[in-house]
Amino acid sequence: MNRQGWGLQAYAIFYLLFLYAPIILLPLFAFNSGTIIAFPLQGITTDWFAQMWADATLRRALSNSLMIAVSASILSTCFGIFAARASTRFGFPGKGGMMAFIMLPMVLPEIIVAMSLLVVLLGMGVQLSLLTVIAGHTLICMPYAIAVLSTAFSSLDRSLEEAAHDLGETKWGAFRLVTLPLVMPGIISALLISFTISLDEFIIAFFLAGNEPTLPTYIFSQLRFPRAIPVIMALGTVLVVLSIVLLALGEYFRRRGNARIGGKPTGGLL
């Protein structure tokens, strides 16, 4: 291997270590019996996980976050189905500009989106609550759902729908009996990815949740107390495992959907 190849390999190794070392260290300190986050480790314990589950405020924050994530993922996926279907099957004036506008939250800084939503909602007299967080999360999750679903719809063979129409099915019947089952893996993938994004999101929840705690805002509030850090490490370990599982499932269903409808494999989200 030439010098340039060694340099690229060293860069890749350094980049991966920099990116994943904190995630690898997280479970180490979560199972450490010491309260100080430092080496050497003092012992192995699961007490921090027990204390995590015994915290009533944490359970409330977890319940709120799960409700928000489920609601936002369902809404963003439903809206994503409509948008992806329209953008891949129909031509209409201004389609490019409309789709670019819908996908804009994917590239805008979240703090700008959060501040804008806060100003608009307060100006309309809307009281901040979990419903406002659901609306904000739906806004930022929908572009990701559309990106996944657009691939599923664009890879679908149109002749299957035309055959259903020739056999006497209505447009709704063809969509329900033919199109929807074929793109179902993409729908499941969009649901899981949107759920993960909503569950981990902090900035929108911080601005729009009002007095209701969510899991990310609860973690942020506990970082001020050194004795709570090991419990946060335990909670972070659980969240990392959950996020990896959900993203892996989402990617699995996305690839399964591409194979099922005969599309070529494309770069995934993992």
TrEMBL record:
GO terms for biological process: transmembrane transport. It holds the Pfam family BPD_transp_1. It comes from the Bacteria. CDD domains: TM_PBP2. The keyword Lipid biosynthesis does not apply. Residues 62-250 form the ABC transmembrane type-1 domain. Gene3D superfamilies: MetI-like. One of its GO terms (cellular component) is plasma membrane. Belongs to the binding-protein-dependent transport system permease family. CysTW subfamily. This is ABC transporter permease. It comes from Paracoccus liaowanqingii.
